[in-house]
Each structure stands twice: as C-alpha cells, then as structure tokens.
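Entry for zinc ion complex. Fields follow.
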Amino acid sequence: MPLSIDHDYITRTLVDLVRINSVNPSLAADGAGEGEIAAYIEGALRRIGLDVETQEPLSGRKNVIGMLPGAGGGRSLMLNAHTDTVGVEGMAAPFSGDIRDGRVYGRGAFDMKASAAACLGMLKALVDEGIQPGGDVYFTAVIDEEAGSAGTEAIVANYHADAAIITEPTGLRVCGGHRGFWNIEITTTGRAAHGSHYETGIDANTMMGRLLVEIEKLAQDLITQAGHPLLGPSSVHVPLIQGGTSRYVYAAQCRAELEWRSIPGEDRDSMVAVLQAFVDRLHTADPQFRATITPLFGRDSYAVAPDAPIVQAVSQAAQRIRGVDPGFYGEKWWMDSALLGSAGIETVIIGPAGGGAHAAVEWVELDSVMMFTRILAEATLDFCRAGG
Ligand SMILES: [Zn+2]
C-alpha cells in the first residue's frame, strides 16, 4: 500500500458502461435490459484474469459473478452492484457518458455504473500488483434491482460470503441499512342501490372514510415515535383509492392501497394485525362496516450492527482515505441489502458522490469514484486478511 489505482481504466470503464443502454425492461417498454452490459462486464473480468460465472435469473438478463480466490485463512466478501437503470424519459443525452468539470454524465453514471467501474478497478489493481486477500472476493453485477431484485435473489440462492458491500451511491458515507416497504390492499364492502334508496344502499366509500380516519391517526402517531436508532420512524400513507361505479349508485366497493415504510420489528404480519384491529373495532361499533385487509407485495427493512466487522473495516478505510468521519446513517429507500442480510450476510452500503439518480440530469463525481475505489481496496484487504 498504497495500491496504485488505474484512474484512466476506471474512467474509461465508467464511460463505456454509461454508453450501454441497460434500462430495466420492467420499468420501460423500450428498456434494453442487461444483456449487453453483462457481456461487457464478463469480458472486463476475464481480461483482469478472474474466474467468471453467470446466471440468467430472467430471460436474456444475466448476473455476472467475478471471483478472486483468497490465499486462505481470511473471511470472504461479496461486492454488489446492479447493472440495470431506470428509464431515460426527459433526458437530453442519456447515454452520452460526457465528461465535464470532473463529472461523468448520463443515466446510471451515479446509480450505479460508477460503482461497478470502481469494483472492476479495485480488482484489477489487486491482480496487477499480485496482492491476494486472505479470503475469497466476489464481485456480483446483478440485474433488476430497480424493479423486482431478481438478480440479488438469484445470487443469495447460490452464493454465500461472510459479508457484503452494496456499492449504491452514498456520497462516500457509510450506510448501515434502510427501511422496508409493504403495499397492503384495503377493501370496504357496501351494498349497491339506486341513489334514492337510502333504506337499502350501504356506501362503501364512506365506510372507507372511517378506516382512513384511523389510518391518518396511525400515520401521525408513527412519525412522532423515535423508531429505530439508525432508521428513525416508520410511516404509512394511502397512495391509491378507487370506489363506486356511478354517480347515482351507492358504492358497493371501495378499494385503497396503503404503503407502510417499515423499520426492524415490523413485518408483513404485524402491519396486517394493526390494520385488522381497526377493522374489527369498526365492525364491533357498526356491524354494517365490513372490510378486508390483503398484503400485496413488500420487502423487509435492514439494519446492520454498527460494530459488525464489515462496518468497522469500511468505516476505518473511509476515515483514513477521506480524512473525515464518514458517518453511519440509515437510508430512507429500500436496497438489495435486505436480501443479503436475510440470507445471513452482514451488509454495509457505501458508494461515490454525485446526483440526479432517477432524474433528468444524472452525474457522478470522478474524484469520489477514485476515492471510493481506494476505500473498497483497503476495506477488502482488511476484512479478508488472514486471521481477520
Ligand atoms: Zn441503485
């Protein structure tokens, strides 16, 4: 140390990756998917001299796994970067890879092709200098993180490591977790009748109103709690609602969807139980009130212990290289770390600085990408060292 990092290689790789359209086809009908970018990364890993395996969790969309075998006696580590991006609507030049004022521009530059380029740059530096970590190092370039996370799901089904680093962009801060989310369907049932027939009609929409009052109280209550030490409070809102069929007919049904952004200690069943208790109470007060609660889709929250060895290795490397405390924070949105965590792989999140993820102008700061590569290298060698 210090390891010599090939800045030109990393910049060139990043620009090449941005120029490849890898828009997730589940998000945009014209999304090219991860076929071409997987082939590029596979080639890059082979040129570095690593063993490469692939998986195809979805048709034509490949995970690429590069493996640097350890010398023995150290812990294994998995680096993870997703290769898909969100769509490019409203972007003037989404695949330009233009470099201006020390920034690389384009869809995915920040979220998160720079991180993939940094992982490749780090592995190349280790191989070029003949430095072998004690434990095995895996780089998993995964598909579909922006939609269904089929990529990381396939990784945890077939690969394991003692810890993982999700290289999502964090501005070089250390992230220890994020909230989960669950979409839960609520349906109130009334009785259809002509608008003039108050004696037979039961209005499912006003029934939903009673439930919404309870949900609003819950929403207010949750955000005033301290919540989780790293992630803060959980929150709920009702993003979708639809009731009735005609201006002159009592609504027979009203359907709403609630989204609950969860913290550790809250899971699908506990959230459903809270909502079911509202339904039961309202039904007891008025037997005409009828509602059902149905969980639709969600993902759990994740939080790693601050004293986990991978958190320590990454935090210390970031502190040394940045010269400032890299912090330890919780992110508001969901990431693949929850899947790795629930597979028993302690996971921390760190990546470069930039902006415009999912927005019309996206960029990454090249200086931060180089610094990030160095942090990754030092954290990897420390975490994977023999006897570590
Ligand atoms: Zn991302």
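NOTE: Residues 82, 111-112, 145, 168 surround zinc ion (CB under 6 Å).
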